[in-house]
Amino acid sequence: MQRQEAAVSTGEVLVAMRNLDKYYGGLRALAEVTLEIRKGEILALVGDNGAGKSTLIKTLSGAVEPDGGEILVDGRPVSFKTPKDATDAGIETVHQTLGLVDTLDVPQNVFLGRELTKKVFGLFPQLDQAAMRRRTHELLQRFAISLPTLNEPVHSLSGGQRQTIAISRLLLVEPKLLIMDEPMAALGVDEGSKVLDLVVKLRDEGLTILIISHNLEHVFAIADRIAVMKNGRLVAVVPSAATTREAVVGMITMGASGVRTEDRQWLS
Amino acid sequence: MAVVSEAQAPKSIGASDRRFRLEGLGLTLVLVVLILFFTWVNPRFGTLANLANVLTQTSTYVIVAMGMTFVIAKAGIDLSVGSMLALSTCVFFGLIEAGWPWPIALPLMFLLAMALGAFNGLIIAFLAIPALIATLGTMVAFRGIALLHSAGKLYYGLPPAIVWLGQGKVLGVPVPIIVAALFVAFSWWLFNKTTFGVHVRAVGGNREAARLAGINVARVEVLVYTLMGFAVALGGLLWIARIDGTQATLGTAMEIHVIAATIIGGTSLFGGRGTIYGTLLGAILLSMLNNALVIAGVEFFWQLVAIGCIVIAAVTINNIRENRIGWISRIRHRRAPAK
Q1: Domain-by-domain residue ranges, chain A?
Q2: How many domains, in total, are found in chain B?
Q3: Which residues in chain A are contacts of B194 at CB distance < 8 A?
Q4: Are the C-beta atoms of residues A246 and A258 closer than 8 Å to each other?
Q5: A101–B6: do the CB atoms touch at under 8 Å?
Q6: Which superfamily is assigned to A1-90+176-268 in CATH?
Q7: Are the CB atoms for A259 and A235 separated by under 8 Å?
Q8: The pTM is what?
């Protein structure tokens, strides 16, 4: 897959994390992490298991409260106590578990919790199934997602299709930042590349995306910048066009000491 | 986890959607074949009078099974329906005997049954007691209260207006059939066409996903069991009106009939999926079977044996359909590797 240059990124900062700290007992899961996410970019977060990637995105999605530091969205400081606070601020997260109800069909899943209704006889609120189906169709069309069927239970769909439905769910509200936790992890090669295409398409539509992945091939295929973490610290944030896989692997495994001389400028 | 077949890329959105879904077709055919078979064996079965009689008798089960469909689709179960029915009808009769006018006693009976249902929902939602155990407990407790309240008494003698609900006819159609039909229509609408119906299935299908989607899971839980209570009151009303009497042992072993009807209809015992039409057919099927066995002179105890076997068979069929039985699904996949 050919890497595409960011079409929309203006360099404007959407989310800024400043000196984020998080302790789990004696373990320092986040150590003064300062990271900026720019509007319209795909920022990939990489690092070994236990490097602090999950903790970092949990602070952004409201699942975990940081012990220190601050988060700014559009320049305004925010405090996320619950996942709802984060979604209210325009930050949506696709979890690895996807959060789909297998026995419901596609529009029911997309609109779960925010169903459209109309009144029958001007009195009884009833689901507006036609409108939900139409809007689901529009949404899928806009992002060129193809699905063979909308009104079968989603357990009959493939892993990649389920992933796209989980993403479409979040696009309904036009989020500012979309966080994706290992979206390609459980997918086959073909399906994984389709999800990658979708992520790039979302970026080209103006969405800002923070993605966690273990697969550096995927990361280099889509990310505009790569943030490397180790032991709760941010090692470096490098534009993916200006570095190599070997260099990133070096930073993941050895931290700051693994950074090549030509990459020293990206050190945090 | 289910094996995902890596199918070729679909060409468009919703292209292979079925326009007309023939859910419950198989069961409908079974019902028709059974009616023809029973009539062939004994012509008395197929008479309009006997079929109307079967439907009248089954009206209570149909109504309570509607509530059970919501409960089971929510991945719950309610074993206390028979006890709730006995308790609320005994209290109703008690009020009537004490001289209360029925227009006041009747709403009180509905409120009581709904409160009993809500109590089930509350202890399941807020004390994290599995529905099976919670309602097993209230099944015994409610029955106990009914026995205490009535002290073994046999109630009879309802006001004519109430008796009409069980024994009257409108244009030749027995009133219980009309009431049951209306409640089935309402249940179908509520289950398939409202936000509440979708939320019930969402909580039953994936509780955590429902919670993350912002659905108030505890509220759905309590409402579902409250609806169950309402269905019990309505079904109980038709029953006591038809026989013009009640006692604290009324509705014993009712739960097995109602759960059987729901499961035969195709509602998944694991939650998330249910069908109102299927439950209706399931309830009618069971009553017909009973009726045919009675006409054939089979002892009542054999009916219990039959129902128990039918429940196990129905769940097995459902499990095969949902690929829940490892060794059977392996055999099926070997035969048809392309899904």
Answers
A1: 1-90+176-268, 100-174
A2: 1
A3: 117, 125-127
A4: no
A5: no
A6: P-loop containing nucleotide triphosphate hydrolases (3.40.50.300)
A7: yes
A8: 0.84
Nearest CA to A23 among A15, A14, A34, A31? A31
Please report, for the domain that includes residue B272, its CATH number: 1.10.3470
Separation of alpha carbons B143 and B184, rounded Å: 27
Is A82 in CB contact (< 8 Å) with chain B?
Answer: no
Contact A159 B4 (CB under 8 A): yes
In angstroms, the CA B167 to CA B52 distance is 12
Hunting for tokens 């009144």 — which residue is that? A119
Q: Positive or negative, the Cα torsion across A76, A81, A82, A84?
A: negative
A194 pLDDT tier (thresholds 50, 70, 90): confident
pLDDT category, B91, cuts 50, 70, 90?
very high
Residues 6+ apart with CB under 8 A from B115: B229
Of A184, A259, A189, which Cα lies nearest the Cα of A219? A184
> Using a CB-CB distance cutoff of 8 angstroms, which residues of chain B are in contact with residue A104?
198, 201-202, 205, 272
A159 Cβ under 8 Å from any chain B Cβ? yes
Q: How confident is the model at residue B5 (pLDDT cuts 50, 70, 90)?
A: very low
d(CA B113, CA B317): 33
pLDDT band at A242 (very low <50, low <70, confident <90, very high): confident
User: Is B213's CB within 8 Å of A155's CB?
Assistant: no
Ordered DSSP codes for B7-36 = PPPP-SSSTT--SS--TTHHHHHHHHHHHH
In a domain, B5, yes or no: no
Cα-Cα-Cα-Cα dihedral of B252, B257, B258, B259, to 10°? 110
Chain-chain contact of B193 with A108 (C-beta, under 8 angstroms): no
Contact present, A44 and A237 (Cβ < 8 Å): no
Would residue B277 count as lying in a domain? Answer: yes
Interface ipTM > 0.85: no
Structure-token pair, residue B159 = 């006001």
CB contact under 8 A, B16 and A100: no
Cβ(B116)–Cβ(B51) under 8 Å?
no
The single-letter DSSP state of residue B3 is P
Query: B36 in a domain, yes or no?
Result: no
Establish if B11 belongs to a structural domain. no
Which member of B2, B17, B195 has the closest CB to residue A150? B17
Contact B257, B275 (CB under 8 A): no
Give the confidence band of A22 by pLDDT, cuts at 50, 70, 90.
very high
Domain limits for position B266 = 45-324
